[in-house]
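Our consortium's second objective concerns turning raw sequence data into structural hypotheses that experimental partners can test. To show how far this objective has progressed, the report includes one record in full. It was chosen at random from the queue rather than selected for favorable results. The single chain below, 170 residues long, was entered without modification.
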Amino acid sequence: MRRLFIAFLLLCAPLLQAQEMPEVQIEDVVWYYKPEKVFKRIGEYFDGEERFGRKIVLRTQESPREGLYYIVRISEFADALPDGCAFEVDMLRPDMKEPTTNTFQLPDERKSHREIWLGFIGEDHPAEEEAPVAWRIKLLDPQGKVVATKESFLWSKPPAEQPADAAEAS
């Protein structure tokens, strides 16, 4: 009987670990250029370990920490999301003609936070304090399906209509 119970638990373990995707929305997105000193906390001087406080910080590169950060606030706590979720950021930079896309994988070990900082570091961010032209942020489930999205006004702006004379000349 004991062996049967253990076998049952082993068969059910993957089902118990699978998390359902909760209804989640991206409530707010703001962006800021953050210098290195913003991330330095007193504890780091003692042990060299970076601490994030009440937020999850994900970056395109580990160092330096200075760069453009999208601060994303979601409606659910991050630890309620299943493992394998990610944020995808499409950004049109002022120094580029085409948008760039970066994916930020949520760590499997995460605290109960609603604020996620998505940092573009080094060559991945526009010049210092230069505003992105337009952006779109998507939350992807573990299968890559979009479950929530938020975009800037200019991202969804329809293309300019060509004057009738210009259309005929083409």
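The partners drew two points from this record. The domain at 20-154 is CATH 2.60.40 (Immunoglobulin-like). The longest strand covers residues 26-34. Both points have been shared with the crystallography group to help prioritize constructs.
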